[in-house]
Write a structure and sequence with these properties.
By secondary structure, the chain is of the alpha/beta class. The chain is built from eleven helices and 13 strands. It has a single domain, classed as Alpha-Beta Barrel (TIM Barrel). It has helices at 8-15, 33-37, 111-127, 153-161, 178-193, 209-214, 223-236, 280-284, 292-304, 316-321, 327-336; strands spanning 43-45, 49-50, 56-62, 67-74, 80-84, 88-90, 105-108, 136-141, 168-172, 198-203, 243-249, 269-275, 309-310. It starts with 7 loop residues before the first helix and ends with a helix.
Length: 337
């Protein structure tokens, strides 16, 4: 089914929305004042959910009354605030463990919508007493939607950089499509000249290629293509960090470090292990939490194979309130009915 045809006219209208005035001078590294001054025209905020570990979630309405959820929260080190925007309404990848998959896929956000969303997250966080302008901010594209399935994502990065130069993380399941290859090239080109760090992350989720293919609804790149992406990232992006291979692990996930060490090699890739926060969708697929002991055992095995292992864990909000990506969207829409 073609996604773009019913949206061609509407997206053309969105692109005609008024632009915010931008200074001709590039923003200083870490300065997000332009985001505070930006006047969103394509999204509006009508609610906020505040939790007890500095997590704020904002349901945002598009002009066509779709709902996406933006998040701000303290990072794992508690020295950085993360701004976590949605980049699509729903997600075409539809992993079996992720609640966003139950939304299906409606459309990609435009570049201007993504900028508006980030500005709203920053502005609303300030209103609720979290002065992001006075601390280190990182924009993490790790939630609703996949960057390599949104044709507007490269343009969104460029428009964000006109307003703020802050660290970014781009996380993808890495679909096996020409669009994904084009967007990865655009991300590499952008990152090569961007004034701060861009961290690239691939949701590998399993060392078993067949299992990895089964958990998604669209074709995913094989390990050879992922290796080529790691090589390109290192060659094209000056001072690049290793590409993260992230695993959201359950008891059912095949994860054997020895199976990938010769192709997804430790010189190109780092490892991030994360225990799955239960979702209704995942429970329907028969998934179970892995537990901290097994997670540590796997981390030690990756280290013994020469990998750098980056700490990863579910946040308190996810564990206590069962609010992984996609879950608040459904709750909020139920409240509106």
């Amino acid at each position: 089914m073609k996604q773009e045809s019913p949206w061609a006219e509407q997206e053309a209208e969105l692109d005609q929305a008024p632009k915010s005035s931008l200074s001709s001078q590039a923003p200083q590294k870490g300065d997000i004042s332009s985001l505070l001054e930006h006047k969103p025209t394509l999204l509006r905020s009508s609610a906020a959910f505040l939790f007890n570990d500095s997590v704020l979630k904002y349901p945002l309405h598009t002009l066509d009354d779709r709902v996406v959820v933006g998040t701000s929260c303290l990072g794992y080190s508690e020295k950085t605030y993360l701004v976590v925007p949605a980049i699509q309404v729903g997600c075409p990848v539809q992993c079996n463990f992720c609640q966003v998959g139950d939304q299906g896929y409606e459309r990609s956000l435009t570049a201007k919508e993504i900028v508006d969303e980030i500005a709203l997250i920053v502005q609303k966080s300030h209103q609720y007493g979290y002065p992001l302008a006075q601390t280190r901010v990182k924009i993490s594209f790790v939630a609703d939607g996949d960057p390599l399935t949104n044709p507007n994502f490269g343009q969104a990065l460029e428009q964000i950089a006109e307003r703020a130069v802050v660290p970014m993380k781009v996380s993808t399941a890495y679909p096996d499509t020409p669009l994904a290859e084009r967007l990865f090239d655009e991300i590499c080109s952008f990152s090569a000249t961007y004034g701060d760090t861009v961290q690239f992350q691939i949701s590998l989720n399993s060392t078993d290629a067949e299992y990895r293919a089964r958990i998604a609804k669209i074709p995913l790149a094989d390990y050879r293509k992922i290796r080529e992406a790691g090589e390109k990232w290192q060659s094209d992006v000056p001072h690049a960090r290793k590409v993260n291979l992230t695993f959201t692990l359950t008891q059912e996930t095949p994860c054997t470090p020895e199976d990938i060490k010769d192709i997804l090699t430790p010189d190109l890739f780092a490892i991030r292990l994360r225990d799955w926060a239960p979702t209704e969708r995942g429970l329907r697929y028969g998934l179970h939490r892995i537990g901290p002991e097994k997670l540590k055992e796997l981390a030690d095995r990756f280290v013994s194979e020469g990998y750098n292992v980056i700490p990863g864990r579910t946040g308190n909000t996810e564990r206590m309130f069962i609010l992984s990506a996609g879950q608040l969207t459904g709750m909020y829409q139920s409240l509106l009915r």
